[in-house]
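Researcher: Quick sanity check before group meeting.
Model: Go ahead. Protein one:
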Amino acid sequence: MLTVRYFAAAKAATGRSSDRINLAHLNGPWTRGAVENHLVELHPAAPAGERPLIEVLARSSFLLDGQSCPTPASPVRDGAVLDVLPPFAGG
């Protein structure tokens, strides 16, 4: 299982602070991009007044176990933690 933690606008878009993803359910290689696509399927609509997750992900930075996960092709692994970090105020 991959733990995905949401912060700021990502948390608002999903209405949750985290999700646990069974990587075996992803099509193709286990990459950040595949995880992003899966997250958009899980959260197709945002709560009223919030931006959709697909928009938030496009502006976000990602950390995998505390290290930069810079591109959609970046590999992810079972048991890891992926943080979704939208731009914060002033950043």
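Researcher: Fine. The other one?
Model: Protein two, sequence then structure:
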Amino acid sequence: MQVSVEATSSLERQMTVTVPAERIEDDVNSRLKQTARTARIDGFRPGKVPMKVLKRRYGAGVRQEVLGEVIQQSFYEAVTQEKLKPAGGPNIEPKQSEEGQDFQYVATFEVYPEIALADYSAAEIVKETSEVADADVEEMVETLRKQHSTFSDVERASEDGDQLNIDFEGFKDGEAFEGGKAEGHDLVIGSSTMIPGFEDGLVGKSAGEELELELTFPEQYHSEELAGQAVVFKVKVNKVSAPELPELDAEFFNKFGIEESDLDGFKGEIRNNMEREVKQALHAKLKNKVLNELVNLNDIDVPQALIDGEVDRLRQQAVQQFGGGANIDASALPAELFADQAKRRVSIGLLVGELIQANELKADADRVRSTIEEMAQTYQQPQEVIDYYYGNQEQLAQVEALVLEDQVVDLLASQAKVTEEAVSYQDAIKPAQPEEAEEAPEAEEEKAEAAE
């Protein structure tokens, strides 16, 4: 077998493979002989059909099967021989396939980039720190009480936090618009479920009052017909209800799966949950900053095949996130919506994979166990969760991949210039900004593919 390779770009390769005719013909003849044992052709007994007749009847089909298998086998042999690492499936173009002549084809494909990691000591990272204060716990308890409050009718003007039962209808240019009407609608003032100004306009109103609200829809409203448009809502207040907060007793505590019967014990459980939440949030933010800086310091060529694969994954995630399920064809979502994010995610994956290999990192078993145990604490039967992970190799592998990625983050953070910044609990748990919220998808998988 002869192989020649041409680099048509930094990552694209055109590989010409020539397979000797003898290999093709031997495989075809061997396949035809097998066929002869069972072939039934009029005028011939089974097993006695001449080769010439078999070739005329089955030769073309058998040859195509053989060529398909030869392409698969020879492509793998060729990339191994040339020490190439394909980043995706090849595009195969046959050049010569006539009987009796050497078979030749051209395979076009991308390879994984050669990565020379930059010195990470130039990175500057701000690491946020936070502690859960007593005031944070008190605020959380009150928030939980408000979430489980009940409402009782009152004979007074409405206040912030009250629930109003209303009828309303919206008009644009004097005409009622679709979706702008409801009767007997319950609305909590301050919930921000209506467009800006709607709830504010209901403060100070009493049951039986009718009013008109002159408002403007936000410029980014999901309906193009209403976005940025001036409208009038005619509203009737049917009744006003004031919130009643639940008592801080065992019945209330049990709603959250907490068996504590006293307030101090309940607050202790709430604090534990908040501390776990803030720890996870701060870890995620630091991780995103470290990985994003890794990408910024290492400008690498990224195979389009990997980007396309990541775009498909992001499409599927988008469909699942919005509850489309089987009703939405993910492939119909424009690729350009996900292209930049996909490229960045793949870049992170390739760089993390390179660091794993360069530093010969393996997932720390103790860290894997502590991660699983921490995850299990959020369930009522922690030991069952732990046993599940260790009894399911696929689930365990996912945790090991996360731990391995965290070890890479720790390694990079130890090399960078890290400064700490104390932030409040509320700021700590705020989601990262879009440009910060990148992760390293399939880092181990991509590196494993590159090493094959």
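Researcher: One line on it for the slide.
Model: The radius of gyration is 33 Å.
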